[in-house]
Amino acid sequence: MSDPSYAPTRLVIATRESRLALWQAQHVRERLRALYPDCRVKLLGMTTRGDRILDRTLSKVGGKGLFVKELETALLDGRADLAVHSLKDVPMQLGAEFELACVLQREDPRDAFVSNRYPGLSALPPGAVVGTSSLRREAQIRERHPHLRVRALRGNLDTRLAKLDRGDYDAIVLAASGLMRLGMAERIRACLDSDEVLPAAGQGALGIEIRAGRPELAAWLAPLADADTTACTSAERAVSRTLGGSCQVPLGAYAQREGDTLRLRALVASPDGQRVLRESAAAPLGEAHALGVRVAQALLAAGAEGLLRDLERLVDSDSVQAP
Ligand SMILES: NCc1[nH]cc(CCC(=O)O)c1CC(=O)O
């Protein structure tokens, strides 16, 4: 970017208005300002359907991209140049008019255990009530801790913590990265390692979405990308995409770089934790996407299809919750 005529002069970031979303958008704004000191970077705050619908469980609301659609509209009509998302919330298959311009360096991908009384999942007594907003967490908690009661928990971070504090739950489980970004890391009693609860594809990473066909904009954003995170999340998202998964599926996928190798673990489960399929594989760093497809196919061969089919039925009826 040494030639100033190739630097942007004005960029607008579309963002949701939750505290976490605003933090993430501001983070990207700071990164852009550091790269392009002469560029004015503005935030355009918006409310999405996912933010408005709070009375129903997300898996019932259904519809992919609940948290991104309004932002995409702003990209299309030119009100915004880029949208900052938690990568986890970005649909696996974007519309043809959009592209994922870059994925930023991942923060802690783990889920966090938060409680005012107990130090960790294993310390909870039988019948204790755990709040979580995802079928993935629910399945894995119930698999290992069948004596616990898992209850739906929705709302933004502050709302979820408030529900814990007023005694609705004995503990809650949510993404560690969100708490860390908002300066609430001290609320984390324990981080659940990936053997205990495998994270969601893309958890802890930010993704920047733009309108397709804007190569100059894509080039401006490219320096924000983190190569390792891009490879890892590409493998993780390929699992989910291959399984036709949305955020409403109890699906975990987590990749780590080990030298020149990418190691990927994934699981599909029934929400009650009775059936959990796990697969893992490794591949060279440059074959991230193929690795994801391969692990997904192994899951399918092990019976993931039946699991996902049963799940559709479950979600159509009156049960459980999600992201
Ligand atoms: N589904 C909501 C959502 N989307 C991204 C995050 C956390 C931040 C991240 O994963 O980067 C959260 C909250 C949570 O899962 O507790």
TrEMBL record:
The EC number(s) given in the record are 2.5.1.61
Question: Can you quote the record's cofactor note?
Answer: Binds 1 dipyrromethane group covalently.
Domain Porphobilinogen deaminase N-terminal per the UniProt entry, residue ranges: 11-217
**What does the entry list under GO cellular component?**
cytoplasm
Q: Does the keyword RNA-binding apply?
A: no
Ordered alphabetically, the record's keywords are: Porphyrin biosynthesis, Transferase
The protein's name is Porphobilinogen deaminase
Q: Which SUPFAM superfamilies match?
A: Periplasmic binding protein-like II, Porphobilinogen deaminase (hydroxymethylbilane synthase), C-terminal domain
One of the entry's Gene Ontology molecular-function terms is: hydroxymethylbilane synthase activity
The record makes one more remark, namely: The porphobilinogen subunits are added to the dipyrromethane group.
Q: Record's family?
A: Belongs to the HMBS family.
Q: What do we know about how this protein assembles, alone or with others?
A: Monomer.
Name the job this protein performs: Tetrapolymerization of the monopyrrole PBG into the hydroxymethylbilane pre-uroporphyrinogen in several discrete steps.
Q: Which parts of the sequence carry S-(dipyrrolylmethanemethyl)cysteine?
A: C247
Q: Which organism is it from?
A: Verticiella sediminum
Does the keyword section mention Transferase? yes
The Porphobilinogen deaminase C-terminal domain is annotated at 231-300
Any one Gene Ontology biological process term? protoporphyrinogen IX biosynthetic process
Q: What class of enzyme is it?
A: transferase
- Known HAMAP family for this protein? Porphobil_deam (MF_00260)
- Biological or metabolic pathway of the protein: Porphyrin-containing compound metabolism; protoporphyrin-IX biosynthesis; coproporphyrinogen-III from 5-aminolevulinate: step 2/4
